[in-house]
Amino acid sequence: MLFLRRCNQLLQAPQQLTLFVNIGFRFYSSDSEFEIKKITKIINDHPFPDQPVHPTLAQVIPSATISTSFVENILGRLFATHSNGLKAFEFFKFSLQFPQFTPTSDTFEKTLHILTRMRHFTKAWDLIDEIQKTHPSLISLKSMSIMLSRIAKFQSFDETLEAFEKLEDKLSDGKQFGTDEFNLLLRAFCTQRQMKEAKSVFNKLYSRFSPTTKTMNILLLGFKESGDVTSVELFYHEMIRRGFKPDNVTYNIRIDSYCKRGRFLDGLRLLEEMEQANCFPTLKTITTLIHGAGIAQNTNKARQLFDEIPKRKLLPDSGAYNALMSAYIRSGDVKSATRLMDEMEENNLLHDDVTFHTMFSGLMNSNRIDGVLGLYRKMIDRNFVPKTPTVVMLMKFFCKKRKCDEAFGFWNYLIESGYCPHSHATDVLLRSLCSHGRVEQAFGCSVQILEKGRHLSKNSFRVLEKYLTEINDEDKLRKLNEMIKKLHTALPASKGHAIGISDPNQDRLALI
Description:
The chain is mostly helical. Among the domains are: 203 residues, Serine Threonine Protein Phosphatase 5, Tetratricopeptide repeat (Alpha Horseshoe), CATH 1.25.40; 91 residues. The protein is built from 27 helices and no strands. Helix 4 runs parallel beside helix 6, helix 18 runs parallel beside helix 20 and helix 26 runs antiparallel to helix 27. The longest helix is centred in the last third of the chain and has 17 residues. It is globular and about 70 Å long. The chain starts with a helix and ends in a 22-residue tail after the last helix. It comes from Helianthus annuus.
């Protein structure tokens, strides 16, 4: 997710063209945060697929509670907590039956994003068909980009092109798609670093559409993310030869390309070139250079660039602070990074997931266990739930340091917050608990995952199978096997998911 967010920041796309929805928690004074958390947790904890969700929703959600902002907040939390996509879909459909709720682009896009993230493409197409009939204006470039990007990630090149054509047939009212839709298709491939496919589509459809500078920037960003500076510069010159004029987004991408490869001085050279071309640097430009200075271990230059932000009539945001913090962490200066956290608070800037992830990384690398625990408690006290990479990093740290109590406590905090931990974090915790003789707790965690309608990984199941067999607890193994098999009837397993005991006629359960 950090990579995808970075792509959008560099492109600085208008909101309606942003590929991945910025699904955060947006609270309104009319809504009770407590009520939102409570309903989200009820949906996440609802046994799936044992019982339908709709009757429970009707029982726990008063009709007067339903409003547009309420539904947006619930869906936002369901997305952030990795809820089962089918339960989120049921909640959205449940909300549609109330006359005071008018679906918005935000609610539709969040539901679509949740479904496609879990590869429920059939349901996603059903949702698009339904909305097209009832609220066709909600189907925007953003919703189309969500669909195309996920299909490009999880399905084949041909299937992605077919999806593009299918969307055109459904949504264009007889008119052909234009440059904006063409850009979405290119970006779907570029954000997956599928540059061979992106170039093929560009060459094939170039004559049909009218590419703009934005089109070329999307391709340029794709080459940057492939990690090849030479490819970036070659395509940049091709862009110039085709008559496109570079803008500040173009320069930001090129600067980031050099900085990521440790060529910070080349990034500074491009800043000068940018200014000479009367293409004024943005806050993103300076933030990128601060990050590049950190990669080059030049904290003095990073601080100088940061201090120049007000002189350029710009205001530093959390991103700029995080970039400078990362520079300090890379040089081992944890104290200066910590002072930056305090400075952010003084300037009323919230610590976001990148802030915590950067600081945890620095404290872990410097082997400051007490510092990690202190920051962890500070995060918990603020009721902050980090994103998946930070969750996995913390879980690995606790388990590696043999702090099973902290790891299990962190798990319970996530569950109580309505979050369904990612399979990587689950794998790490279950392995650690079992190796320390806490098989009962490991079994309980696996049941929580399955009850929420999320698959258990093959690795987790094998670990539990091994330890449950060793302690002769066949009842628990049988229960896990039954829950996994039942979940498959409603939610087919994908690669890496547990399928239970494959041949019951030959396994030890057949002996009972």
